[in-house]
Amino acid sequence: MAETITIIDDRTGKQVTVPITGGVFPSSALRQLDPKLRVYDPAFLSTAACKSSITYLDGDAGILRYRGYPIEQLAEKSTFLEVAYLLLNGELPTDAQLEKWSYDVIHHTMIHENMRKRFVDGFHYDAHPMGMFTSAIAALGTFYPDAKDIHTKESLDKQTLRLIAKSPTIAAMCYRFSMGLPFVSPNNSLDYSANFLNMMFRIGDDHRVNPVLAKAMDLLFILHADHEQNCGTTAMRVVASSNADPYSAAAAASSALYGPLHGGANEAVVHMLSEIGSIDNVPTFIADVKAGKGRLMGFGHRVYKNYDPRAKIIKKAAYDVFEVTGKNPLLDIALKLEEAALKDDYFVQRKLYPNVDFYSGLIYQALGFPVEMFTVLFAIPRMTGWLAHYAELLRDDDQKISRPMQWYTGVDARDYVPLNKRK
Ligand code: SDX
Question: Active site includes 301?
Answer without folding.
Answer: yes
